[in-house]
Amino acid sequence: MAEAFDVVVVGAGAAGLMCAMTAGQRGRRVLVVEHANKPGKKILMSGGGRCNFTNIGTGPANFLSANPHYCKSALARYTPADFIALVERHGIAYHEKELGQLFCDESSKQVVRMLLDECGAAGVRIEIGCGIEDVRARDEGGFALRTARGTFHAESLVVASGGLSIPSMGASGFGYRLAQQFGHVVLPTRAGLVPLTLSGTHLERLQDLSGVSLPVEASCNGQSFRNFMLLTHRGLSGPSILQISSYWQPGDALRLDLLPGADAEAFLRAQRQARPAAELRTVLSEQLPKRFAQRLCEAWLPNRPMRQYGERELRDIAAQLHHWPVTASGTEGYRTAEVTLGGVDTRELSSATMESRRVPGLYFIGEVVDVTGWLGGYNFQWAWASGHAAGEVA
């Protein structure tokens, strides 16, 4: 005998729990099914265990989507201030790290506990370790889910199963397959907010500098991010690289400004005048990590005493420092990616409610949808906003 609910939410992540508590607060009978062994796994690991739970500067411009207008409605109706008010009501201490990013002072466990407490207060039932075997639309309306814990019927079905990122946390393509089963288009997916890999000469020259970090401005396809870059034994990582990775695809030109905010040409001229006998690598070591500066001068730039450079050469060196070309060979893939780009096509979803235009009562929220945020709390804010939008009507 099937158990009946008003709403079944697939996935106990950020979007799913927000949707469940919001629907439950409306008096709806809500069931959350989660195939992993605990709720909120991605929340728990985020922000180094402190959960970068929102960004106070969140706006539509911080998201990638084939339809950039889609996220506007939900983001406007559930803002960072709304989530901060919830965090404060639960007495969770937090701080701003940089660029509007808010983190828990103590632990990401507090955010998961808050969401579970809200769900509990709203009468939401959560089934953990509950794999779904089959989903179908019922002739009389609504949906039937056959699971490891029996069959459940629901008027509304909310898919909050996430993307493909970090399969070790239980990520799978379930939500995409379900969308296609119900006739939805799924746009091509790829890893986002992910380290880039190098190969060949680039890797050989930089591999042994693994662990060296420096501020850069990374640019690709008209988008730029200024933050730290980290050299790894496989390529490049760090916030500036993770950010630009969402805009990069194989074959795209990627450029790094190694002295962001500085005037390299003026600096080199001044050094030539003040220290004519100093070598270029010595001069650059004062602006860049020493090992990195020395490698630049061994492999890419001509290293001589400053007095031996003419105007044109200094201009060329400055141009290279501000527009250093990098040929990335690929990314680290879903294994380390923080998000999945692409997903359920938003043209077939309501931007106000996240409901399918094809199947009444079917909703898609969070990362499974073709809306992907920048690094820094934006993806959580999309989870809260899209979850809230669906939870108000499902």
From TrEMBL:
Magnesium keyword on record: no
The keyword DNA-binding belongs to this UniProt entry's keyword annotation: no
Domain of life of the native organism: Bacteria
Cofactors (names): FAD
SUPFAM superfamilies in the record: FAD/NAD(P)-binding domain, HI0933 insert domain-like
Keywords on record: FAD, Flavoprotein
InterPro entries reported for this sequence: BaiN-like (IPR004792), BaiN-like_dom_sf (IPR023166), FAD/NAD-bd_sf (IPR036188), RsdA/BaiN/AoA(So)-like_dom (IPR055178), RsdA/BaiN/AoA(So)_Rossmann (IPR057661)
Ranges for domain RsdA/BaiN/AoA(So)-like Rossmann fold-like: 6-392
Matching PANTHER family: OS12G0638800 PROTEIN (PTHR42887)
Name of this chain's protein: NAD(P)/FAD-dependent oxidoreductase
Organism: Luteimonas lutimaris
Biological classification of the source: Bacteria, Pseudomonadati, Pseudomonadota, Gammaproteobacteria, Lysobacterales
